Each structure stands twice: as C-alpha cells, then as structure tokens.
Amino acid sequence: MADVVVFCESDDKGIRSASLPALTGGAALAKQLGGGVCAVVIGSGTGAAAADAARYAARVLAYDDARLAAPLAETWAPQLADAVKRAGAGALLGTATSTGKDILPRAAALLGAGMASDITAVVAANRFRRPAYAGNAIEEVEISGPVLVASVRQTAFPPATPGAAGAIEAVAVAAVDALGAELVGLHETKSTRPDLGEAKVVVSGGRGMRAGENFKILEELTDLLGGALGASRAACDAGMVPNDLQVGQTGKVVAPQLYIAVAISGAIQHLAGMKGSKVIVAINKDPEAPIFQVADYGLVDTWEKAVPALIAGIKKLKASG
Amino acid sequence: MKILVTCKRVPNPEHKLKLAGGQIDLSTASWQLNPFDEYAVETALRLTEKGKGGERSGEVVAVAIGPKEVAQQLRGVLAMGADRAILIGGDDAALDATAVARVLAALVAREKPDLVVLGKQTVDGDSNQVGQILAGLLGWPQATFLASIHLAADGKSATVTREVDAGVEEKRVRLPAVVTVDLRIIGKKAVRNEALASAEAEWEETQRYASLKGIMAAKKKEIKDVALAELGVDATASMKVKSYEAPPVRKAGARVASVDELVAKLHDEAKVI
Predict the structure, then answer these.
(1) For a Cys staple, A205 with which of A100, A209, B60, B119, CB 3.0–4.6 Å?
(2) Among the partner residues A74, A143, A185, nearest to B239 by beta-carbon distance
(3) pLDDT digit string (tens) for chain A, length 321 residues
(4) What is this structure's pTM?
(5) Prediction ipTM score
(6) Which residues lie across from A255 on neighbouring strands?
(7) Distance from C-alpha of B175 to C-alpha of A321, rounded to nearest angstrom
(8) A297 touches chain B (CB under 8 A)
C-alpha cells in the first residue's frame, strides 16, 4: 500500500485547472497501489490553494514559505522529493505543463526514480501508456524501483471532481537553496480567451495565412465560438504569431470538441498536437493537403473566402437561435 | 568557456514508422541528428563566436551515446564547427532518460564544462527529461526551453528567456549550469556571450550547415571513443518500453462543397456549434 503524491500548481485563488487531470490520474494510480492521493501545494501564501486541494485529496501537504515564492525547479523539486518521502508514497504525478515538465524530472533525479512523460493511461501499478515519435507510436512502459514519477497529458484525463474533505498539513520548510538561480520576471501573455489546453473550440492558422495581421479574422472566428487561438509551427516560425500559440509535438497538445485548421497543411508534428480533437474541420486551398486525411469535414477553399463566410454563417445560425 | 553539447541520433521524423508485432523496426531507418540537438550545437557555437575582432574563444565539445555508427552524426557536428567529440559506446535504444543523465553526469565530472547545452527533447522518445535530471544529479541550476541566452561579461552567470505556458519567463542562473533549448534560440540575437560579442552581433536566423571547409576540417578533429564501463556508472534503465502499437487511425471524413454545408453539418450532424 502506497500513496500517490500529486503536484498541484496553484495561484492565490486555488489550484490551477491544469492540475485537475493529474489528480484524476493520481486517483487511478492510487487505486492500483492500494493507497490514497496526497496533494502538494508549493509557494508563498498557499492558504487558498491548500483549501482548494483538500476538496480533491484526502491529504494535503502545504509547503508555504516566502523563499518558495518563485516557481524555481531548484527550490521546488526538493519539496516534491520531501513530500514523497514524508508520505511514504510510491509515486509522484503532475501535469505535463511547462512547470511540470521543468520540475518533475528534477524531482525524479533527487528521488533516484524513473519517469514516464506525458502518460495517457494508467495500465497497472507501474505500467503506463504514452505517445512517442510525435504520436505515431503508443508505448506501453514499465518503471522499476520503489518510487516512480510520471507527468500526465492534460487532455488524456478528465478533470477531477471535488468531493473530498482532506486534512491539510503545513510542512515546516527546511533549508532552501536556489543554487544561484533567480526568477527575473514573467512577461505574461494577456488573453481573455480560454487556455489552449482547456478550450472547447480551437481555431488554428498555418503558414498559408501569410502574415500576422491576417490572423485578425481568425481571432474574430475564435471569439465568436468562445474558443482559443492556435497556430502551426510554420506560422510561429515565420513570426506571424507568438510561439505560445503553437499546437503540435513541440508545442501544446489540444483535444477540444471542435478544432478548425485554417491554411494548415498538416505536418506530422502538427497532427501530433491535435488529432485527439473530437471534431476536426480543415479549410485549405490545396485539395492534396495531408490535413484532410484527419479532418471530419474538409473544405477546399482559400481562407480569404471561407473564413468570412463561416463567420457570417455562424452569426446567422446564432441569430436564428 | 567550455561548453558540452549533447547529440542524439533519431530516425528521420518525416519517414513513416515501421511498426510490427509490438515493436518498431529501425533496421532500415535513416538516422539524423535530433533537430533540437542541432539547435543546441548552434547555440554552443554562437556562445564562442563573434569576438570584437571577429575571433572565436572557448571550446565546444559534442557528446553522443550510441553504437559506432553515431560517429557519422558527430562528424557532422564537428563540420558545423564543434572542436572535438566524445562517443560513449552503448545501446542508445536501451537507455532511458535517467540512465542517459547518469552517464552524462559522469562525463561532466571528467570534462568539467562551464555549461551543458541540450535540446529540450528528442523527437523519437519525446520525453523532455534528460537536461532536468542531469541538473538534479549534478546539483546545478537549470534553465529549460530557452528562447534566448546571454552569458554575462564576467562569465559567471547566464540570463535567459524561457517560453512557458503563461508567456515568457526571464531567469538568471549561476554557472556552471545545464540549459535546454527550444526553437526560438536560433533568432538573430537570441544567443550572445557578452564577454566576447558586442550588442550589435547577430547571426543568421537558422542553424548553420557544414561548409566544405568545415567538412574538411572535421576530418582532422578528434572523436574520442569512451566505453560505458570506463565511466563507472549504472546505466540500467528504470523505464523500459514493453511494447509499441500504432495510434488509433482517424478516418478521413467527408468533403463539404460550401461554407453553408459546413455550418449545417457542424450544427445538425456534429452538434458542436
């Protein structure tokens, strides 16, 4: 019997929604291990986060310390390792966000544990499924050793639902050594749109959009559908849009109800990031574009003609109720 | 400034994977340098270039783990401009990120670089772990997914920008450190050693290709073979791949003839708008 420690990212209001799938994965693994879920929150002023985490886990360890205000791998990974030891846990899980990807492997190093990245299913107590080769192969992996670490793919597990009334333990944080690392600042991308990882609708543009200003019309379509804006690597590389919009193997993985790919040819590495979407629409002027091979609905047309017409059509549909 | 840069071979990501009987058949694979490692090499080279008199300063050491055939990829890295290379013999397919990081940590203890530069992930395993584990094992600071790196004029720290989910993070790390690079690192002014290059220095917005001169020079450069056993580390993988299978195939759907038909289908059939 061993517990599963789940790293919950948080802000001053509570835990981030990106961490809810990790709690679901953690519960599935805890069942295999015959233990429970122990949530961990780290930071400075984690009161609200700990209270929120207690709605999802029987036990919450709160590492609340002014020296932990910045999310540095150098200072946070030792807290995760401490939590695993304190809980006598058999596993450490988190979501494969940029923070999770940065910190979890370092925690694995401190624990001497093996790690599986981006798991999409828990098969057994030490067996997982995960995509490799840009999603062109699904691996079943086995991790040996007394402790294992895994990051869960956010779109592969449903968000955990509240219902627990966990006990919160404030941990007295031991020496904190940033090893000469410091956070200088965070230049946040301000957006009123939902996060790419959680949006129900994603509209993405590709190289065929030709220029950043042409994304305005995609933004209009995105906002009409209450979705998030994405882009192919080619569009990001060409500097049309910021790289944090990139959907694909090396960018974000999305799985919305509706994915609309506009002027995207459909390179393997882009498909790796979106083929889990429920419904895929492709709009491309090239009838041979590979994107059509994964699209539920394909329209051969230029974006200049199709997107304004689509906006008008959806507006008309909404007006007719 | 001594920089260690890691180089892994990967099967050409544009080629179709051969999957049969739960295994991947790589016997006919066409191997190439992992694209992110190519960017790591470019980063390391830029950190030694464009001195105020046009000079180069510092040493770039490329390291790979794998069978002897990997010398081909290392030769390519030497042709790009790396100074020397180390090939650690081993079965690259049998190692996981933890084992690779342990091997690299042992090599770091020997070579004592000021900076280790890695690609943020390999495009075969897609794990994105080695740099972070290595930094953890060494007790060094880490900076992952770099969009830019500037080495301070005193050579004691690096200021970097990292692309994170919320935007762009700026971080400073003391050297020695481990860094992993993302796609933006090849921007014109993304990489600079302030002890060497002036603020005006800029590079072409692409990784370099080996010149004929570089290829000729590479023939005289050293690729040192090191046996895994010589490093005295346990290279047993903690994570083993038991089987592979093809992902579920998504069937191509229907073509629609017009936007009106698309809107109608999305509303009536798919019920997503």
Answers:
(1) A209
(2) A143
(3) 799 999 999 999 999 999 999 999 999 999 999 999 999 999 999 999 999 999 999 999 999 999 999 999 999 999 999 999 999 999 999 999 999 999 999 999 999 999 999 999 999 999 999 999 999 999 999 999 999 999 999 999 999 999 989 999 999 999 999 999 999 999 987 788 999 988 999 999 999 999 999 999 999 999 999 999 999 999 998 999 988 899 998 899 999 999 999 999 999 999 999 999 999 999 999 999 999 999 999 999 999 999 999 999 999 999 987
(4) 0.95
(5) 0.97
(6) none
(7) 62
(8) yes
* Assigned fold of B2-248: Rossmann fold (3.40.50)
Tokens of B132: 């972070």
Tokens for B52, please give them: 């105020």
What values do phi and psi take at A315, rounded to 5? -60, -40
Residues contacting residue B59 through CB under 8 Å, at least 6 positions apart? B1, B2, B3, B48, B83, B84
Chain B residues near residue A279 by CB distance under 8 angstroms: 266, 270, 272
**Residue located via tokens 């959009």:** A209
- Tell me the C-alpha to C-alpha distance, in Å, between residue B76 and each of A246, A260, A306, B215: 30, 40, 46, 8
Whether the Cβ atoms of residue A95 and residue B87 lie closer than 8 Å to each other: no
Domains and CATH numbers, chain A: 4-170 (3.40.50.620), 201-319 (3.40.50.1220)
Using CA coordinates, name the residue in chain A closest to B137. A109
